[in-house]
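LOG
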Amino acid sequence: MLTSLSVAGQNHRAGALSRWAVIAIGAALAACSSSAPDPIALDNADSGRVVSLAVGQEADLTLQTIGPGEFGDPTISSSSVSFLGISDAPDQNPGGPRQVYRFRAATTGRADITIPHVGDVAPLVTPSFTFSLVVP
């Protein structure tokens, strides 16, 4: 039930229902706020691909080396994608290291990314991993 209340010459409507309605609408709007889509998972088979990401979305790239060496630091052609870091994959393979590279789409554009393989011993030479991330 709404009532009118006069305070210092002003007319105010007070009511618990309207106060709770405002709180409920605010909570609903907060729950509907947009967040970045789930990360995209990539691996060795995705070399050469062009992948689209939404702004704020992450790409998690797991690279497996078989034999000596490991993948090194990436080079990124533009600031449309940020490099978040490298970590060891939780599930390792005795054939060689598995590394997880994390990237995040920062702004509209295209980033060509190259990750060299280092520590090769001839005749086992692993080519660099290359791919592109496009942020529309």
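LOG (cont.) second protein
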Amino acid sequence: MRTALALLLFVTTFAAQAASYQWKSDHHAISIDVVPITGGDQFNVTIVDVATGATLASPHLVAASGTQAEWTDDTGERRIHLVLRATGQDLIATAELSKGDTMEERIQTTWSTGPRHVMDLSSDLRVSGDVKAPRLIHRVEPVYPEEARKARITGVVIVKAVITREGKVKDAVVLKPVPMLNDAALAAVKQWTFEPGTLNGQPVDVVFDLAVNFSLTPKPADH
């Protein structure tokens, strides 16, 4: 079985709110046109065999806002199972293609669909040389989204943050996303406090990368 994982591959806006998303591996390609409709979204999907150029499936799915669309086709020699979900900030797709008992490929990918927040880093320093890193003194653990827990999604979200000379998080953006976990990571990081970074011994605003881990493995109890 081949497993493919991808993040934010290609996005083309073709109308005021509709957009097209594409993903491709060595074996399969998926394109998804998302069309906003009253109360939700319509997903027009095309799945292609890269080697032959043949269209394997072209389903049209509809999902209410905040819910997932699911589709399965097992009428031919190949079984295709597809799950799509638009969260308002991300489009998340999972596709499984199999023949008989053999899984050909499992695809997991997410595209950012919300407006991109751009940090102003013009007046902030990066940790290097005489600029010393801030030290975390108070960490708030993220609230695990229930839908991500049910889907057993885990991973490490990397957040780029501006930490002020007072040790507060002034701004933050997701640098390395994980589907369904990004908002929870940002919400947690914005509550963290630090011993500030310094330049020549004086507190300064610095840009610093932070890791937020989401795991379904229970943490060992403190003794």
